[in-house]
Specification:
- This protein is α+β, with helices and mostly antiparallel strands.
- It is built from three helices and five strands.
- The protein has a five-stranded antiparallel beta sheet with strand order 1-2-3-5-4, with helices on one face.
- A hairpin with a 3-residue loop joins strand 1 and strand 2.
- The protein is globular and about 35 Å long.
- It starts with a helix and ends in a 9-residue tail after the last strand.
- It binds adenosine monophosphate (AMP).
- The site of adenosine monophosphate has 12 residues, from loops.
């Protein structure tokens, strides 16, 4: 999608610190990390958010969660981690391209603020 930041990162037009890349999924470090590990995992193909998922997205979602599990192992998050996806203004979604935050390396409070 034109002018979509994460589409541009996925196609190489905008630089990012990419930590994992498959045919369907790209993962890169958040530019403003909120935990020692803070990686964003996104589909290459544009999807607005989880609210826009359809049955045809099952395979890419499975790939996303494979990448998340493998990154969590690579980053040594043996004590646990958090996976977050924000939808819309109430949740504070600031980039309208589906992304899952993989966060770890510290304790998180519950419920989130
Ligand atoms: P959200 O607020 O859930 O939509 O998450 C968007 C995330 O993207 C935020 O945590 C930002 O810090 C991060 N972000 C914005 N621009 C970039 C960028 N160019 N490279 C990496 N992460 C970014």
């Amino acid at each position: 999608v034109k002018d979509c930041l994460f589409c541009s990162i996925a196609d190489g037009g905008v630089d990012a610190d990419i930590v994992s890349s498959t045919s369907e999924v790209v993962a890169f470090r958040d530019i403003n990390p909120q935990s020692p590990t803070h990686v964003l995992v996104v589909p290459r193909r544009h999807i607005d958010s989880v609210a826009a998922l359809a049955a045809a997205d099952r395979d890419v979602l499975a790939d996303i969660f494979d990448v998340i599990a493998s990154l969590a192992r690579d980053e040594g998050l043996d004590e646990g981690y958090r996976v977050v996806t924000n939808v819309g203004p109430d949740a504070g979604q600031s980039v309208p391209h589906l992304h899952f935050h993989l966060m770890g390396g510290r304790r998180f409070s519950w419920p989130p603020g």
